[in-house]
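Workshop exercise sheet. Pairs work together: one partner reads the sequence aloud, the other fills in the structure field after running the prediction. Swap roles for the next sheet.
Pair: D.N. / O.F.
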Amino acid sequence: MHDAPVPPDPESERRGHELRDVAIKPIIIFLIGLFVFGGLVQAAMSLLMTGYIAQESKTAIPKVEILSDTGDLNRPAPLQRDTTADMLRMYEDDKAVLTSFGHDKKTGKYHIPIDRAIKVVARKGLPHRDTPKSAIEPELPYPRHSQPYMATP
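Structure field:
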């Protein structure tokens, strides 16, 4: 290559802009190199991921529906594959609890349908007790006038 300066084009100077074409050969070589490099990277990643998938299929965790009732944490939990079905199953379980009578043997608590519970509370009212004012406002370890500022309603 030579480093000689390119002589100015008189027509380009007269018009006020360059009239020569862009050298297209370096641009085409760059684009071909870019596509070849991209293809090589894609092929390498494909081979790499195929190896990971093959290795994962050999050591796949067996599907376990529910962990045991004893809380056995040695059994691995399954990966969540179908989130929609899992959510629908959870909603059905919640609905079954909210619309049925039952007893939890671990805690000894009973549950009744939510509609019946609402009627019972509406009929009996919520439990309350009259608490003395001293229980609501306990004795402070500092004088009342040194309390932080509180806006009055």
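Discussion prompt: The helical segments are 10-15, 24-58, 83-98, 114-124, 133-136. What would you look at next?
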